[in-house]
Amino acid sequence: MTRFGKLLNQNRIAHARKRKTGNKVMLSLTGVLTALALVPLVWIIVYVILRGGKSINLDFFTQLPKPLGMAGGGVLHAIEGTLIVTLLAGIFSVPPGVLAAFYAARFPNTPLGMALRFSTDVLSGVPSIVVGLFAYAVLVKPMGHYSALAGGAALAVLMLPTIIRTTEEMLKLVPHTLREGSLALGASEWKTSLSVLFPAALNGIFTGFLLALARAAGETAPLLFTTLGNERYDLKAIISGGVQSHQGFFQILDRIVNQPVDSLPLTLWKYAQQPYPERIEQAWAVALVLMLLVLIVNITARVWIQVRTRRMEG
Amino acid sequence: MWKHWQAVSGGIVNKKIKPALKPNRILRLHRIFRHGDRPWQGLIMVVSIFIIVLMAAIGWMLWRESSGARFTFGWNFLAPTTNASWDPVNDHFQAWPFIYGTLLTSLFAIIIALPISLGIAIFLVELCPAWLRTPLTWMVELLAAIPSVVYGLWGIFIFLPVVVTPIGSFLAETLGNFPVIGALFAGPMSASGASRLAASLILAIMIIPTIAAVTRDVFLAIPNSQREASLALGSTRWETIWKVLIPYGLSGILGAVILGLGRALGETMAVTMVIGNSIEGSLSLLRPGYSMASVIANEFAEAVSKLHNQALVEVGLALFVMTLLLNILARFLVWRVASRTPQEVRA
Fold first, then answer.
1. Residue pLDDT, tens place only, B14-39
2. Residues of A whose CB is below 8 A from B297
3. Domain range B87-340, its CATH number among 1.10.3720.10, 3.30.70.3270, 3.40.630.30, 1.25.40.10
């Protein structure tokens, strides 16, 4: 081999080595970046559990807050508020969401179907604080007072896009043969929709609902000026007081949903800004409860769909 | 015809009871409502129209509720100025400091989040062993599930002192002296750590799951033939990723970035808790700032004057329009890459 040829060969080897090293470096870098992204997740979860766990006791779940500056007390009002507001949000969002999804799955290429899909996309991108402004303008202002109802409606608007999209996807996954079989047996379209398609897609729909609910339960921004907050909210007192004064069911219900309530994220936000150390510690405990609630619902939903799809395949 | 009606009505109608309507009219109604299909289709149609109306109503309500502020301040409200005033006492409002804060923190968050999200997507699709794929995907998605206020609380008490302040001081000493970008990194770093930089970093953590998930879908949608062709020509795996896959999915990745930007713009609670909430003249990332969503969250419930209220709604309107446009753009880009992909899809 000539001298020049040898040089060329060495050059090639060096080049190949460089490429190989670059390959290894960059590929491991992607792994490192993935690990880096998970650092905050682990850090937050572990830290919140450790610090919040210190101030959690039975009182925390069963007592109303003590006056400012005093130790003890709990966040029962916020737990009740969160349950009521998310329940209302579920009631307001599931029926219209599922029905709209039936339309989107049945008539995807009509003008109305495309407009519906577009609206769903837009709704899913609307910032939650803007939804809060909207609910304030539409509900709080005309009604003249803040209420759990307005908060539930605001959260429902945030849940709608998720519910519509997952339901639509799940309805589309149902095999055509099922639908055609039902129609061929003489079942009408609504009967096919409700008693064949809907049960077949139910697992997915339920998962979508849980995911949307988990997201809504953690939202603060839309509640800031719809439910406002109410440290003296006491479900037990409202119900027992109502029963004692012989109020009807709807009167009691009205008192429950038609006044300002607190919720866990809202309480957390308020407590975190206060200069009292007891309140800060309680904020960490609220963070723990809220985080566990959201994560458990979230993981349940995912495990549920995994198990169910595996069973259907197997 | 009458016999037919008797048959379908299950014998409820018999000859003795004369129906109020003439039989043929009942039959016509019956044909229309035969299987309940018309009411069913009507119902789902009405609900769909309701959803569309709801979307339009959000925009319209914001437009209507901000009329006074729009009328009083015109475009000056949104115009970039160095000495903007936000003065509830004298009822004079200009939103530029908030718009600047929102845009700067969101863009900086994207700059941080994009490489990390790309790394995650590449790792998950191209490298990760199969058993690790599902748990890792879940964990990345759980980042998006943690409520915003929890990020904020953790941000105030842990992230600011432990991470942001050292990084900020370091940036102020190094990049702060550069001629052009120095203005962005001008010190001194704010003492508590509450700054636009803190907001950007928290936002980056919060939008990584969004960008990573969409980018991962884009990579999954790239046909295997592209990979095989590149590898057969002697490329290394990284060269395949960098020179073939990323250019192929570029518009989808761009869509993911815009989607992430949309989320960053609207993020409220975590940003409000760490950005410092102050309108000062400095343009620096290392100083406290304010964002559009934060000012609404902080002031709306206490806004006394009507003009103040309307000015805040107008800030919300601007935010709505920004996210609307970004969303449309992002959907378009993702849709384009999806529609271009041929039938063969990587399993």
1. 555 555 656 677 777 776 666 677 88
2. 129, 221, 224
3. 1.10.3720.10
